[in-house]
């Protein structure tokens, strides 16, 4: 395990982070769509309102107010319900509390002095957000002295001795901890953790240059759906991490060829109403491959959209809905074929899944995820761009960089890698 995880604390990652604003469950789906575009990991934490405004609140009460994380896929799946498609205006006014999946363990409040290695362990257990107080007392103790310094002040609190520490030190105290209750917070996601890891690749050597297979970062327990099945089937899949479903075709020898994905990452900044209609009416293959405009003009209905597409003539600051035909481009896809099953080798734009090779290095995969702001990368065979072997997500990377070194042979043949994964 790299010593950088022991010498750094969570407070080091909060520098420059904006203040965290709570999003309440009483807000509407329409408001959530507007906020979710600026979020990380394609989701927003949802909270219950305080029962007593103005009163101090400790971390336990704040944790109880946290409901869960609402993702873009949650919203599209909700809008794809038959009753929502029949009355889209009413569906957009639905409170977020009726849509978000309650999970109180996805967020945890931590002290700025928490070691990074401890934060990693929390995220490996399922925590996706860390709520960090932006206390005025905390100035940040970074680099190699942070754990030593924190060890001293933690010991002083327990023993009551000063241990020759300067009186103007930045160490937290019991009073500062209580005062931090009223301070502002910032929110760290797993994406922030990966950005930190990218910044200290040298300290992690030789791990970053090792293949994702050799470091055990490939997750074989992923969700998938055949392209011929209705796209709505993805809503019946058990929630996983990452929150994504691969759309595959089965080959005669039993292998899965990935042609696309339906995920919160792909639907992050889409036209939600158009995507909901497509999810409810198209097959999974048609959904990810897209449908050309000239085809949809003859086959698909028109419906009002007033979120992503707005008229230039806006009265009193409110845009009026206008009729819009569904197309793959309206949900963010830019297909290269006019129908599913034709021209798959052509450019598919945003509908193409983000993939890497089984021999790709860990550093390359992390950089790929950050550059695309994706929560995961699908892993394919080295000889084929389509044969799916697994997926690499944030949690898989955290497991890889924190586990003890092993005697795994790095230079295995590609065939040996594939056989070992399939077994």
Walk me through the structure.
The chain is α/β, with parallel strands linked by helices. Helix content is 31%, strand content 16%. The protein has helices at 4-7, 29-36, 59-65, 72-79, 82-86, 88-92, 116-124, 146-159, 174-179, 190-199, 201-204, 272-281, 284-289, 293-299, 362-372, 394-402, 414-422, and strands at residues 23-24, 43-47, 66-71, 107-109, 129-134, 184-189, 223-226, 244-250, 256-263, 302-305, 322-325, 355-357, 376-380, 388-393. Helix 2 links the parallel strand 1 and strand 2. The two termini are 28 Å apart.
Number of helix segments?
Answer: 17
Approximate helicity band: 25-40%
Q: Tell me how many strands there are.
A: 14
Distance between the termini: 28 Å
Question: What's the gyration radius in Å?
Answer: 24 Å
Structural class: alpha/beta
- The 3D shape can be described as flat
Calculate the mean pLDDT score and round it.
78
Beta-strand percentage range = 15-25%
Order of strands, widest sheet:
1-2-3
Major sheet, described briefly? 3 strands, mixed
Give the uncertain stretches in residue-range form.
142-182, 292-300, 303-326, 333-350, 407-411
Briefly summarize what is shown.
31% of the residues lie in helices and 16% in strands. It has 17 helices and 14 strands. Mean pLDDT is 78; it is low at 142-182, 292-300, 303-326, 333-350 and 407-411.
């Amino acid at each position: 395990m790299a010593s950088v995880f022991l010498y750094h604390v969570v407070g080091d990652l909060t520098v420059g982070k904006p203040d965290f604003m709570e999003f309440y469950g009483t807000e509407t789906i329409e408001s959530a769509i507007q906020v979710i575009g600026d979020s990380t990991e394609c989701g927003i934490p949802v909270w219950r309102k305080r029962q007593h405004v103005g009163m101090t609140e400790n971390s336990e009460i704040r944790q109880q107010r946290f409901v869960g994380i609402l993702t873009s896929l949650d919203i599209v799946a909700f809008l794809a319900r038959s009753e929502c498609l029949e009355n889209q205006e009413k569906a957009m006014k639905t409170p977020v509390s009726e849509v978000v999946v309650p999970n109180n363990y996805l967020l945890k409040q931590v002290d700025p002095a928490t070691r990074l290695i401890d934060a990693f362990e929390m995220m490996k257990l399922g925590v996706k957000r860390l709520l960090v107080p932006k206390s005025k007392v905390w100035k940040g103790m970074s680099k190699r002295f942070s754990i030593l310094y924190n060890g001293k002040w933690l010991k002083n609190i327990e023993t009551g001795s000063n241990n020759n520490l300067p009186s103007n030190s930045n160490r937290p105290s019991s009073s500062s901890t209580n005062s931090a209750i009223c301070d502002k917070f910032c929110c760290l996601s797993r994406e922030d953790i990966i950005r930190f890891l990218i910044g200290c690749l040298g300290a992690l050597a030789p791990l970053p240059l090792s293949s994702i297979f050799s470091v055990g970062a490939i997750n074989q327990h992923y969700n998938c759906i055949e392209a011929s099945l209705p796209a709505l089937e993805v809503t019946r899949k058990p929630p996983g991490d990452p929150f994504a479903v691969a759309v595959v075709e089965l080959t005669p020898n039993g292998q899965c060829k990935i042609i696309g994905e339906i995920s919160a990452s792909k639907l992050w900044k889409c036209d939600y109403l158009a995507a909901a209609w497509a999810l409810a009416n198209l097959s999974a293959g048609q959904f990810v491959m897209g449908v050309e405009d000239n085809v949809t003009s003859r086959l698909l209905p028109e419906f009002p959209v007033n979120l992503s597409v707005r008229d230039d003539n806006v009265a009193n600051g409110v845009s009026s809905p206008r009729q819009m035909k569904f197309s793959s481009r309206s949900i963010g896809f830019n297909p290269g074929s006019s129908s599913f099953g034709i021209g798959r080798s052509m450019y598919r734009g945003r509908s193409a899944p983000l993939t890497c090779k089984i021999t790709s290095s860990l550093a390359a995969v992390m950089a790929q995820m950050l550059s695309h702001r994706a929560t995961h990368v699908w892993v394919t065979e080295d000889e084929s761009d389509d044969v799916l072997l697994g997926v690499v997500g944030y949690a898989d990377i955290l497991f890889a960089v924190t586990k003890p070194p092993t005697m795994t042979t790095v230079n295995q043949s590609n065939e040996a890698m594939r056989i070992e994964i399939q077994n």
